[in-house]
Amino acid sequence: MQLLKAASTAIHGLLPSKQIRTTEECRQRNDRQSYFSLTRQLVSAQFVLADGQLAARLWQEVAAREMDLGRVINLLYGCSFPEDDQAMQDADDEYLSLVDPIDP
After folding, report:
1. What is the pLDDT of residues 68-100, one digit of tens each?
2. pLDDT tens digit sequence for 3-46
3. Which domain holds residue 38?
4. 77 part of a folded domain
5. From the centroid of its chain, how far is CA 25?
6. Is 16 inside any structural domain?
7. How many domains does the chain have?
8. For labelling alongside 57, which of 9, 19, 42, 100 has CA 20 to 30 A away?
């Protein structure tokens, strides 16, 4: 029993926090990952593969999902290393700091 208690306290820091995340925080995290994923697909379609049909379908998906076009364009052209999560996050944070979240 004592061994189990010691082990449980040792791994306690590795477990998710007991603090419940708000719905808004979870939505923002998932939302950001959606923007990053779609932007990476656009980078591949437009710049690597030069596939106009694939790029057009991806842009249609952006429109269908009612994503912020400016945000996608900023990630597409404002981030030099789209494969780097931190570079994407920095570019996204910079864009979001300039945009009024209430403005549709």
Report:
1. 999 999 999 999 999 999 999 999 999 999 987
2. 544 444 555 555 555 454 555 555 566 689 999 999 999 999 99
3. 23-98
4. yes
5. 12
6. no
7. 1
8. 100
